[in-house]
Amino acid sequence: xxxxxxxxxxxxQVPDQSAKAGINPxxxxxxxxAKRMLNPFDRYxxxxxxxxxxxxxxxxxAITMGPPAAVEILLEALExxxxxxxxLSDKRLAASDTLATAYALYKVIKHIGDxxxxxxxxxxxxxxxxxxxxxxxxxLELSQAxxxxxxxxxxxxxxxxxxxxxxxxxxxxxxxxxxxxxxSYHPLxxxxxxxxxxxxxxxxxxxxxxxxxxxxxxxxxGADPIKCGLRGxxxxxxxxxxxxxxxxxxxxxxxxxxxxMVVDLLSNxxxxxxxxx
Amino acid sequence: xxxxxPTLKEIITPSNKEVIVIGEQINGEIKPxxxxxxxxxxxxxxxxxxxxxxxxxxxNIHSLPSKLIAxxxxxxxxxxxxxxENYQTLPYRRVIIDLLSGFPLPPHIxxxxxxxxxxxLAPRIAAYFExxxxxxxxxxxxxxxxxxxxxxxxxxxxxxxxLYAIRPSFGESLKARILGPWKNPQMATVRPGIMLPLxxxxxxxxxxxxxxxxxxxxxxxSEILEVIYEVSKGVSITEADVVIAGGFGLGKSEGFDLLRxxxxxxxxxxxxxxxxxxxxxxxxxxxxxxxxGKTVRPKLYIACGISGAIQHRVGMNKSNLxxxxxxxxxxxxxxxxxxxxxxxxxxxxxxFITQLKLIxxxxxxxxxxxxx
Lengths: 277, 372
Ligand SMILES: Cc1cc2nc3c(=O)[nH]c(=O)nc-3n(C[C@H](O)[C@H](O)[C@H](O)COP(=O)(O)OP(=O)(O)OC[C@H]3O[C@@H](n4cnc5c(N)ncnc54)[C@H](O)[C@@H]3O)c2cc1C
Ligand SMILES: Nc1ncnc2c1ncn2[C@@H]1O[C@H](COP(=O)(O)O)[C@@H](O)[C@H]1O
Hints:
Structural class of chain A: alpha/beta
Strand order of the largest sheet of chain B: 7-11-6-1-4-5-12
Strand order of the largest sheet of chain A: 9-8-7-10-6-1-4-5-11
CATH architecture of the largest domain in chain B: 3-Layer(aba) Sandwich
CATH superfamily of the largest domain in chain B: HUPs
Largest interface: A-B, 87 and 99 residues
Number of strands of chain A: 13
CATH superfamily of the largest domain in chain A: HUPs
Distance between the termini of chain A: 61 Å
Structural class of chain B: alpha/beta
Strand content of chain A: 25-35%
Number of strands of chain B: 20
Largest sheet of chain B: 7 strands, parallel
CATH topology of the largest domain in chain A: Rossmann fold
Shape of chain B: globular
Largest sheet of chain A: 9 strands, mixed
Shape of chain A: globular
Oligomer: heterodimer
Bound molecules: flavin-adenine dinucleotide, adenosine monophosphate
Number of domains of chain A: 2
Order of helices and strands of chain A: EEEHEHEHEHEEEEHHEHEEH
CATH class of the largest domain in chain B: Alpha Beta
Distance between the termini of chain B: 86 Å
Radius of gyration of chain B: 24 Å
CATH class of the largest domain in chain A: Alpha Beta
Number of helices of chain A: 8
Number of helices of chain B: 9
Order of helices and strands of chain B: EEEHEHEHEHEEEEEEEEHEHEHEHEHEE
Number of domains of chain B: 2
Helix content of chain B: 10-25%
Helix content of chain A: 25-40%
């Protein structure tokens, strides 16, 4: 049996964009009002971490960085069978770009200790960069596989299938390694009854909760504040513009016989340029 | 009491004004995104008064530099080595980091394609040099920037030649201009299929420089066991001229048979899909168009039973001609399609196919000829 001891999974809480609440008229997000959810891509990472534990052993640690409310997703992760959660929360992290975020998460990982595998989501729906995972791997000097949709562990290696344009690659990496999980991997399974019961229990006692959810700040992890937040971010959003709706120009046919509508469309558009002759 | 705003001091971050494109090739073929990057890279280099270079790694690729020069590169940095035959994070990372570390001054701008390889490699390089990187840009430009935010006083100043990295955010309802002029290279990955390549000029002259390769033991911690290219019978959706896409309105997986029949009426066509039909398993993920699928820009996109949610739209709204078939006139797709038919796709598409088979089109005169 391959010796997997520690599995880390990085998850983030993001605004739920399908809900109207908290979306300002100018298209920006009011994070205080917006509904929150676990980044959908991170569900695949959680599944990969829990799958690893089930088949190869080890303990799963979920790690997040965000405002205190992000504890919600750690509880959700515990319900799914994660063993312990860490949240890095500190005002000095505000406006971190991916480089600063990756630096802070790297310091959290160093603080927690040894690991065999780190799973990340492919990307977030708010940052939407797919950069944080590889940037953590760079700081930790790890090998990485991004866009993974399948994997197995053999001895001290992980063999992963990663999506590339027009096909896929099978890669073998020595452990430790970092993996970002594509959304073509298996969807997250239902919460476990045991996990759900445990979280119910934790919610009744702060003391119990603190055994499973650990709060950290920059001082705890020995992070350099200058490398965090706005100051540690080499990029800034200088401007945002609302993209205007293109609408209004669509030529719509309706309520007429199908044959008439189709012929009208074919004669008044350039579709026929593309047909096989 | 009014106070005169002190003029911000101009700050020039050291760079050699070079714009570098990290090229990509597969089996000795340059990927289209590399030529697109050279197109936009040339524009940026001209605005900076600098030069455009391209890095290309692979094995048996000596014929590529002349093509890259024809498409606008002034210098090609070439690493041609068996060890670099297929893309792999650590060896490619090493070669590029070594190359850039050898420059007396950093390049001004470093561009990569927003492909599975580019998005794998770019963040490693950016983190190594602790420089800024903007993902998945749809527009790039050069311009000035005044930094007045007092939170980090050491950055206050006027920066004349910033890379404006422009990308959609929040599912494309917003466009963000992101910049990071404090450190060079300023980096971006660029979405394939958006920028236009220059017209190649095979008489152009350029330099070819061979890169010294110095891989270390830790670069061999991973190996490629197998590369599988899907031998799909048809064209891939990102390359197709015509994409026939199906959504949940198809009602069943067999609905795609009808779409395939429609696709067969066109040259160079492929089948696309919304995420919902991929999630329910009617068609594999590789057909998915949108935020979490592929971005396509075909000449013709026919959306059948697709509502046109923002996450779908971002993957296809650059198509030249968008046709929507949907039974709900309020479906968002009709807000941005060019032509639409409101009705049941199971009545409309068969009629479409019948008409397409009947009609003969005279391309020169652009007239329809009905066949008997
Ligand atoms: C983070 C995130 C990422 C996402 N990424 C993507 C992505 O990459 N790509 C993507 O597509 N979606 C994506 N989505 C999902 C997206 O929000 C929509 O849910 C999805 O696109 C809807 O698919 P649909 O249009 O096929 O289905 P529906 O929204 O259910 O629409 C079906 C349409 O078919 C019409 N219809 C029904 N029957 C008929 C008929 N007989 N004839 C004609 N019309 C008919 C209906 O009027 C309706 O408009 C994402 C969502 C999230 C939250
Ligand atoms: N604040 C965060 N806390 C924990 N993990 C994160 C955070 N931001 C990003 N990640 C991880 O990095 C992945 C890529 O994020 P991004 O680069 O923002 O698209 C996510 O799917 C997470 O796994």
